[in-house]
Design a protein that fits this description.
Blueprint (H helix, E strand, L loop, with lengths): L10 E4 L2 H11 L11 H18 L2 E4 L5 H12 L9 E8 L10 E4 L20 H9 L1 H23 L4 E8 L5 H16 L3 E6 L6
Parallel strand pairs: 1-2, 3-5, 3-6, 4-5
Helix pairs in contact: 4-6, 5-6
């Protein structure tokens, strides 16, 4: 198809073996590739069959912790509003390291070194989208310096990715639980990137509702 001049993106939906096994168990179905064997054997065969396709995929979406609605939102965020062949769609994902790193990440930044509002009286119950929390996080000297340096780094990287023809970039920002620091920084970074780059920016807070 590409040889005929058509632009396309290969999207590979992936998840852990444990998640696949659970899904087969919940639906009480045998694996179609190994109907007379175990589900685990079917998963192993399927991974072997698809490894070449995964290797050429433009986008790999980790569906391990997604329900069908979250998967729809993830696909829409990446493909729903591309406006040109040279456009770059940036997705900022806040997450908690305690819940695992998002599998679709292109870049991962660890902000656990920043002061934590979790230990500040009156802030712990509120998410990083709350102005009281975000202002506290963003006013810390270490946060201000970090976000300035990160913005400068991404200001260099985004044009490079665009010039190489990359259409989708997932930047994941993680703190311990994914409720405070990473959320506040993802929101602030989205504002800055949207203001300075001709880039569509989507923000997703994966773990903000988790305790």
């Amino acid at each position: 198809v590409r040889k005929e001049g058509h632009k396309l993106d290969v999207v590979f939906l992936d998840c852990t073996d444990e998640a696949l096994h659970r899904r087969f168990s919940e639906t009480r179905r045998r694996h179609p590739i190994a109907p007379d064997s175990t589900v685990q054997e079917g998963i192993a065969r399927e991974r072997k069959m698809l490894e070449n396709i995964r290797a050429i995929a433009d986008v790999v979406v980790d569906t391990t912790r997604m329900n069908v609605h979250e998967l729809r939102d993830a696909i829409t965020a990446r493909f729903g509003a591309a406006e040109g062949s040279d456009s770059l769609n940036v997705t900022l994902v806040s997450f908690g390291f305690r819940h695992g790193i998002p599998g679709s990440s292109d870049l991962v930044f660890d902000v656990r070194f920043l002061p934590n509002p979790y230990f500040v009286e009156g802030l712990k119950p509120h998410p990083g989208t709350d102005p009281r929390v975000s202002e506290w996080v963003l006013e810390r000297p270490a946060t201000r310096e970090f976000i300035e340096r990160l913005e400068e780094l991404l200001g260099f990287l985004i044009p490079q990715y665009r010039s190489e023809g990359k259409s989708y970039l997932t930047i994941s920002i993680g703190c311990t639980g994914g409720r405070h620091r990473s959320v506040a920084l993802a929101e602030e970074l989205a504002k800055r990137l949207s203001a300075k780059h001709p880039t569509k920016v989507k923000v997703t807070h994966r773990d903000v509702a988790k305790v």
